[in-house]
Design a protein that fits this description.
- The structure is a single chain.
- This protein is α+β, with helices and mostly antiparallel strands.
- It has helices at 21-31, 94-104, 116-121, 124-127, 144-154, 180-190, 248-263, 289-294, 300-311, and strands at 4-8, 35-39, 44-47, 50-60, 68-70, 74-77, 83-86, 111-113, 138-141, 157-161, 171-173, 195-199, 208-214, 217-225, 240-243, 268-274, 277-282.
- Helices cover 28% and strands 28% of the residues.
- α1 packs across α9 (300-311).
- The longest helix has 16 residues, at 248-263.
- It is globular.
- The N and C termini lie close together (9 Å).
- The chain binds adenosine-5'-diphosphate and magnesium ion.
């Protein structure tokens, strides 16, 4: 079967192919003979109820510095495609949300991965709150009185912006921290969104495990160990990738959330687990495929394309 596939992603010339999950998906699609087209989010347009974009044919190669060839731009109705990979990176802001509204017009006749309405309705740090028994004690608010109450009960906490990503502005605040007041003042000036305030999990020193679920089922995992002088395990912040197996608790987490993800059309999802606690369910543009392959894990790109092809037949 040959599928007509378009990828909506940030400029391909800027990606670091060694760690890019979208690139891994494109390589596998090309290997299977699917026809690839490419456009950036700023080329999307909605005319009437039809989303269109100036797309370019795309060829990919796993060679740094020479990883793609693009054809001429051609204005194309996105409903002409069998599959659209929604792979633009956060920030998850109004521009992103607008994209999901446009793509929603053609899904599921054109299979959008992930389902755009579900992406919009499942911000990574909010979707977890559907599973309170799996997550650490967590409060989402901007109200300093609420935060004071929570800190008193929890002791050391981690504070991070609700729509943050890549480890940006993640703070550990100890019970006696004297910078807390100033941090709150500064945050109120910079962000309009609430904080996520969460019990500090000391197990983070051993790593934050990224587990990929495809259509609600386990596909692969990689552990990310933070640098000794940083709280954050994100690889863009110096976190080190290492091979990882699943613990019984993690298998239980997957069994619990899998059916919900499948129902919502969230085909490619990356969850984060620290010391057996679920902290994030990443659905916008999850990563980890290449790190899992590099540490000797399964070929997640193959599992994802098997799942997409099954849905298209
Ligand atoms: N509750 C917590 N306890 C300990 N460390 C945490 C906690 N929450 C986040 N961290 C650290 O901060 C990193 C980034 O936080 P995360 O919630 O994953 O946000 P982001 O979306 O920015 O990746 C995590 O990988 C982990 O190293
Ligand atoms: Mg994270």
């Amino acid at each position: 079967m040959t599928l007509n596939v378009a990828v909506q992603m940030d400029p391909i010339e800027h990606i670091n192919i060694a760690g890019d999950s979208t690139f891994a998906l494109l390589l596998e699609a090309q290997k299977r003979g699917h026809k690839l087209s490419y456009y950036t989010p700023d080329r999307l347009a909605l005319e009437g109820r039809t989303p269109v974009a100036a797309v370019q044919s795309l060829q990919v190669r796993d060679i740094t510095g020479d990883h793609f060839t693009l054809g001429e731009k051609a204005r194309t109705a996105l409903s002409d495609f069998d599959v659209i990979l929604l792979r633009q990176d956060p920030p998850f802001d109004l521009a992103y949300i607008t994209t999901t509204h446009m793509l929603e017009r053609i899904h599921p006749e054109t299979l959008v991965v992930n389902d755009p309405a579900s992406v919009r309705n499942a911000p990574e740090k909010i979707l977890v709150t559907e599973f309170p028994e799996l997550m650490p004690p967590t409060l989402i608010t901007r109200d300093p009185d609420e935060i004071a109450r929570f800190r008193k009960a929890q002791g050391d906490v981690v504070m991070k912006p609700l729509y943050g990503h890549g480890g940006a502005a993640v703070f550990r605040i100890k019970a006696e921290d004297q910078n807390y007041g100033s941090l709150i003042d500064m945050f109120s000036n910079v962000w309009r969104e609430p904080w996520v305030v969460q019990t500090f999990l000391p197990a983070v020193a051993k790593g934050d495990k990224r587990i990929i679920l495809v259509d609600g089922e386990f596909a692969g995992a990689v552990n990310r160990v933070p640098a000794p002088d940083d709280l954050r395990s994100n690889m863009v912040r110096g976190g080190q990738a290492e091979a990882a197996d699943l613990t019984d608790r993690e298998a239980e987490i997957i069994r619990t959330i899998g059916p919900t993800l499948r129902e919502k059309g969230l085909l490619f999802v990356g969850i984060d687990v620290i010391g057996g606690y679920l902290t994030e369910i990443n659905v916008t543009s999850p990563t980890g495929i290449r790190a899992i392959a590099k540490t000797g894990g399964p070929d997640v790109a193959r599992i994802i394309w098997d799942a997409i092809e099954t849905k298209r037949t």
